[in-house]
Amino acid sequence: MEMTNEIKEVKNEAKVNLATVFAKAIVGKELSSNEMTEMKNLMQEGLKEKGGVTVPDDVHTRIIELQRDTFDVRNYVNVEPVTTLKGSRAIEANKPQAVGFASLDEGAAIQQLHEPEFTDFEYKVRKYAGFIPLTNELLEDSDEAILAYIIRWMAKNEINTYNYQVFNGSGVNAAQGIMTSTDVVKSDIDFSGTDASVIKKLKTVLNVDLEQLTGDQVVIFTNADGYNKLDGIVDASGKSYLQPDATKKSGNVFLGSEIVKVPKDFLPNVGTGVDQKTPFIIGDLKALYTMFDRKQMSVESTQIGGEAWRTDKTEAKGVFRFDGRIVNKEAAQIRMAKLA
Question: I need a surface site. Which of 6, 45, 76, 242 has the fewest CB within 10 A?
Fold first, then answer.
């Protein structure tokens, strides 16, 4: 009987839940021998003395699930996983001639076409991090409750970082932001007139200013104010120009192009009162912007560093790395619209 119990204990010991190990390691709870082995496998190479623990796949999956119902700019830009902190990509700098191939008689000499010119495009993955204090009340809770708390915290802050940096990054020791960059064409537009005038001006942007992009490539990004403005525009029969479309990620189209409502936290209005302008980013963000994502998240914790030892708390720090760059400035344009 004793042997049977020992066998059961060994079997139970072998069933190690990495998510639980992760949570216990973060808050400093005692680990079994098998859990200790798994924790060492999770510890980041070169960071063992700091307690850096790589987020396990199943925990990362739960983080992704929590992010599905919120705006995520990664759905609209090109995301390239990278394994190095810096590198370069060759990008064609010139375009083929519009005339293409020439007509010629049989046996005649073939004309030389333009020779592609390439430029090296460099990226440098940056580290983004933040910490939260874990209260004693939380530390005394169940492992699953602790894990759920950390997952919610990381899910929200990770996606906020991506969204904010893609639109507003400084480009200096940080990702390049679409709104803050001078690479993307930006101009003012007046949407304070009649519905017909707004439609005409938008059609000019879509049909003329972005003539080289096809309809499926073009997406309209704006905030709640811009979205509300377009949602209220109707045709002569009273039918809204903003229509549902289940084939699009956002679920809606305007003038045949997908329209995406971006939270104001990431795409705010500029100015106040009569001078206020609402941003509209129109184009193909997958061609415009590339995110170089290290695809690795880790958490470090301490009970003795920072304010932790003075307040008798545990501090947890989340860390992940990426860079973002505008790679084709002709793929989108920005219109700062006066709505009223």
Answer: 45
- Measured CA to CA, the distance from residue 270 to residue 100 in angstroms comes to 43
Prediction pTM value: 0.83
Closest CA to 316 of 150, 144, 157, 142: 150
Please report the pLDDT score of residue 27 as a whole number: 76
Closest CA to 76 of 324, 322, 319, 256: 324
Cα(258)–Cα(252) distance, integer angstroms: 6
Structure tokens at 308: 């932790």
Report the chain's mean pLDDT, rounded to a whole number.
84
Do residues 122 and 115 touch, judged by C-beta distance below 8 A? no
Asked if residue 128 lies in contact with residue 319, where contact means CB atoms within 8 angstroms, the answer is yes
Q: What is the pLDDT of residue 95?
A: 60
Contacts of residue 69, Cβ cutoff 8 Å, sequence gap at least 6: none
DSSP state for residue 317 in the 8-state scheme: E
> What is the full DSSP assignment across 96-129?
--TT-SPP--TTPPPPPPPPP-EEEEEEE-EEEE
Backbone torsions φ then ψ of 165, nearest 5 degrees: -65, -40
Q: Is 3 exposed, middle or buried (0-12, 13-18, 19+ CB in 10 A)?
A: exposed
Confidence band for 297, pLDDT divided at 50, 70 and 90: confident
Residue from 271, 289, 276, 293 nearest 338 by CA:
276
Confidence of residue 50 (pLDDT cuts 50, 70, 90): very low
Structure token digits, residue 210: 């972005």
